[in-house]
Design a protein that fits this description.
mainly alpha; about 170 residues; about 0% strand
């Protein structure tokens, strides 16, 4: 054999030995995560936080002075009044535009006078295009004729004809 380590020994047949295939290193296995347990843990924390948030809100409400509570109530009432006034103003505009254009107020839309007028102008040709439908005249068969007297012979003749026709 040779003293040179770089030269590989050969087998008795004279062929060089085959190199062993290189195996890739397997990544280290991470421990399996129990997702259900994690979900339960976070759900429990959320419930605890929810209870704490409710308690904090109660404490903050109790700490408010009467003046702060009245101020908040007054602000809410002012907002409600403003909403009602706005609604009444819009209804008044719709009534005025309806009188001017002939378009019914209940079909008008918009939140400003200009929008309501523009909507009325869009609807006016459509309403005008629909000609009012005249109802068919009612026909009363004996209209304008005097009925025969109950003891008249004309009534008896008409009854005999009706009975005889059956």
């Amino acid at each position: 054999m040779s003293d040179n380590p770089a030269v590989e020994p050969t087998d008795p047949t004279g062929a060089a030995p085959e190199a062993a295939p290189i195996q890739p290193e397997a990544p280290a296995q991470e421990p399996a995560i129990d997702w259900k347990a994690e979900a339960r843990k976070w759900e429990q924390r959320a419930k605890e936080n929810s209870a704490a948030a409710k308690r904090l809100a109660e404490l903050e409400e109790a700490a408010k002075t009467e003046e702060q509570k009245r101020a908040e109530e007054l602000e809410a009432l002012r907002a409600k009044v403003t909403e009602y006034e706005t609604r009444e103003q819009i209804n008044a505009w719709k009534a005025d535009v309806s009188k001017e254009t002939g378009v019914p107020a209940n079909v008008l839309a918009g939140s400003t006078l200009e929008e309501i007028k523009a909507h009325a102008e869009q609807l006016r040709p459509l309403i005008a295009a629909q000609a009012p439908v005249k109802p068919a005249p009612l026909i009363v068969p004996a209209e304008g004729k005097t009925p025969p007297a109950l003891n008249s012979s004309a009534l008896e003749d008409a009854l005999r004809k009706a009975v005889g026709a059956n």
